[in-house]
Amino acid sequence: xxxxxxxYVVFAGQKRPYRASVVGVDPAHDLAVLEVSAGDADLRxxxxxxxxxxxxxxxxxxxxxxxxxxxxxxxxxxxGLDREIAAGAGPEGVVKIQGVxxxxxxxxxxxxxxxxxxxxxxxxxxxxxxxxxxxAYAGIGFAVPVDMVNEIVPDLVQFGKRASPGLGISVASPxxxxxxxxxxxxVLGVAENGxxxxxxxxxxxxxxxxxxxxxxxxxxxxxxxxxxxDLQRALSHHKVGDEITLTVDREGQMIPLKVRxxxx
Length: 264
Fold this sequence. Notes:
- By secondary structure, the protein is mainly beta.
- It has four helices and 19 strands.
């Protein structure tokens, strides 16, 4: 859906419908940017906080529209940090959101997209999902941290989607790496002129009947890499243009390679 109508914005204590269009979406983080045509209305933005220094036990407030009950405020505490949740199905399987905030503030269907606030009323997250066996509140809700939102939104405004960082490589499945007794992620292919190619990453090749194994990625900066999921998780904390260090096992030698991340 590229356009939405009847978007409600709270102004001077009244509900007014304003026309809105979708500027960009990022399904991997359950985020979207809307452009609201509000004319000369004096719409006020929430003050933006930070999610970097949040602590378990910190008091929070959630605002949303659960079950059609608009402008509902609930309160609770931060129950956990740096969680991983499933955000739905994508073309490559289940999409997972990394690093989300867990809270026990009551979040129900209709709260998604609403703000999670700290005790000073600053935005620290955007409510996204709950964990429940019934589909209703069960004491476990999740929000995308505002620092992550701030990283993603400029891309959605400029490109209409997130400019996801990539290495320009294809890798073997965990079963293949385990079957070869490799302690890391085996590189199968390297895209020409991609980030990996420019950094000198070696792919797996074939010479006649022989298969010559490529580099095995064992670390991403200081983070050990054992599976493709580890690699994807490490990439999710970076943006296009960042320079990182991949440590690869090349025929028994540990070699650090500087890689400048390209768009995936």
